[in-house]
């Protein structure tokens, strides 16, 4: 909301709310080309058209042999731009550019806007490879014919909806540059199915056909296609633009799960990872190469998907504990091969079942949350029971890395709380009201703080006093939190399609990793790499935040 509304102390109008929502949505689809002195701001559709222009030049590189060096630099930039958009499919994209790349970006944008401006007089040109016949086609006409055919066939809500203004010029230009022949295209002279394709643009002055891949002036009357194209609105002084932080470098490995990940945990050494998914599967992966496959797979059990399989990995990497749904049982598996080595069974008068599990830091005991918070040894003997004081079964439990404290959080949205106990005596030390849905807990390496995923925030709670001394606000529900091994960085997964990394020393965002869908889990490796899982069932790996922070400080130095 704007500062004038806040300063006036009045509620925003519906128009102001709508404009703010539109601005926020526009920002989610913006490309930032960040240089030392200037920042280019592009709508995503124009950036995509720039990449398509470059791809067309690459396809016709046989016609540009005298400019191969320039073409190589252009294609390299276009590839970087394409990759940046691919890893940030629905959020703002940042790409750091050199001065030479700024010139390339300006050239590609000029050509993209020329293609958009001339889309109404552009035609796809097919040159039959069999007989040499030249055929021009109009994708807009073909789309309308297909649409009318679907309507006549009675299909509803299928194909493209055409408004009174027809197809947008950007869509039209994208269609033209895609060179996709409709199904059943053939040469009308010889019925050949293979052709060399390009674009023909009719000059608005003399009506001559212009077939050049780089459209500058008419080949006949020298009419300038670029004279009316203005790209001065794109570049702005860097000091005037607030850009998203860099996402860091995405590493080559990807894990493809059978459903969205609900838990990610690195084993000691960082070469293996334990995952759990909504499809009830628990898997161990070796992540040394891009073609990672699970070493073993274990089912949580049950006939339907569970909201969150209840799984814990021991800190020493030896054991995996899995709670069986709707039963008072916990299976103990060997982490190396997934072989079950034991099962813990306990009898509770109220019939409650586990809601979360966590190992003690020495890996010799397990905390089980149900209608109590209990500590059990790995032979199935209970050592301690802590009452919840009226709180419903906790959704999350956590054990401080030094073994001093146990924390549990849960409850309803309006009545959630965090409880902290002395791990040695079971004495309750603090109860902290949180007033938000609790999705995850993560300790800092030292026991002075606990990160809590609470509603749309990642909060820091002091231990053992329970004072809330900081929070990071996100745009949607925070689904998971993780703290780096050195305690310097906090990663937060969110339903706003991003994982964000915050520096706990400067209280600033240092990286934002955007994904095409909701991010459901994050985890740090011992060496600082960050794993990010989303509900496209993919887990990706990113360079350590320390490297990202260094990049961010270098870029920011010239902006402030």
TrEMBL record:
Listed InterPro entries: Quinoprotein_ADH-like_sf, WD40/YVTN_repeat-like_dom_sf, WD40_rpt
Gene3D superfamilies reported in the protein's UniProt record = YVTN repeat-like/Quinoprotein amine dehydrogenase (2.130.10.10)
Coiled-coil-forming residues are: none
Pfam hit, one: WD40
* Keywords for the protein's UniProt record, in alphabetical order: WD repeat
Mark the WD repeats by their residue spans: 478-512
What is the protein's given name?
A: WD40 repeat protein
């Amino acid at each position: 909301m704007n500062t004038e509304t806040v300063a006036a102390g009045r509620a925003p109008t519906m128009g102001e709310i709508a404009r703010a929502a539109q601005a926020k949505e526009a920002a989610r689809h913006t490309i930032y080309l960040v240089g030392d002195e200037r920042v280019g701001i592009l709508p995503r559709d124009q950036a995509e058209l720039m990449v398509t222009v470059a791809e067309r030049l690459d396809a016709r590189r046989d016609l540009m042999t005298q400019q191969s060096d320039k073409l190589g630099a252009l294609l390299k930039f276009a590839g970087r731009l394409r990759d940046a958009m691919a890893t940030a499919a629905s959020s703002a994209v940042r790409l750091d550019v050199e001065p030479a790349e700024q010139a390339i970006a300006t050239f590609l944008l000029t050509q993209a806007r020329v293609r958009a401006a001339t889309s109404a007089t552009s035609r796809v040109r097919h040159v039959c490879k069999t007989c040499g016949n030249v055929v021009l086609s109009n994708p807009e006409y073909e789309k309308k014919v297909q649409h009318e055919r679907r309507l006549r066939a009675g299909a509803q809500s299928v194909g493209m909806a055409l408004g009174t203004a027809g197809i947008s010029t950007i869509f039209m230009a994208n269609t033209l540059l895609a060179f996709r022949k409709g199904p059943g295209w053939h040469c009308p002279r010889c019925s050949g199915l293979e052709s060399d394709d390009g674009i023909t643009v009719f000059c608005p002055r003399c009506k001559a056909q212009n077939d050049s891949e780089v459209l500058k002036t008419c080949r006949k009357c020298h009419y300038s296609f670029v004279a009316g194209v203005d790209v001065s609105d794109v570049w702005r002084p860097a000091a005037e633009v607030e850009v998203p932080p860099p996402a860091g470098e995405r590493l080559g490995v990807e894990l493809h799960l059978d459903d969205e990940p609900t838990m990610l945990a690195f084993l000691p050494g960082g070469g293996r990872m334990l995952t759990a998914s909504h499809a009830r599967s628990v898997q161990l992966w070796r992540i040394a190469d891009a073609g990672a496959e699970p070493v073993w797979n274990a089912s949580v059990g049950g006939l339907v998907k569970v909201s969150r399989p209840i799984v814990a990995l021991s800190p020493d990497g030896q054991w995996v504990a899995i709670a069986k749904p709707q039963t008072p049982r916990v299976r103990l598996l060997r982490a190396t091969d997934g072989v079950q080595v034991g099962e813990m069974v306990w009898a509770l008068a109220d019939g409650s079942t586990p809601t979360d599990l966590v190992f003690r830091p020495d890996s010799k005991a397990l905390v089980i949350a149900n209608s109590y918070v209990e500590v059990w040894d790995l032979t199935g003997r209970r050592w301690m029971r802590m009452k919840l004081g009226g709180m419903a079964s906790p959704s999350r439990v956590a054990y401080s890395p030094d073994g001093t404290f146990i924390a549990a959080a849960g409850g309803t949205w309006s009545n959630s709380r965090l409880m902290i106990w002395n791990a040695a005596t079971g004495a309750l030390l603090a109860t902290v009201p949180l007033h938000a849905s609790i999705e995850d807990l993560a300790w800092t390496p030292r026991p002075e703080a606990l990160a809590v995923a609470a509603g749309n925030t990642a909060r820091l709670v002091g231990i053992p006093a329970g004072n809330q001394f900081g929070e990071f606000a996100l745009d949607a529900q925070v689904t998971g939190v993780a703290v780096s091994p050195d305690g310097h960085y906090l990663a937060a997964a969110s339903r706003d399609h991003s994982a964000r990394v915050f520096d706990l020393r400067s209280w600033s965002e240092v990286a934002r990793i955007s994904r095409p869908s909701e991010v459901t889990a994050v985890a740090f490796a011992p060496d600082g790499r960050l794993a990010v899982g989303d509900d496209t069932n993919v887990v990706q790996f990113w360079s350590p935040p320390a490297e990202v922070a260094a990049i961010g400080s270098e870029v920011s130095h010239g902006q402030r």
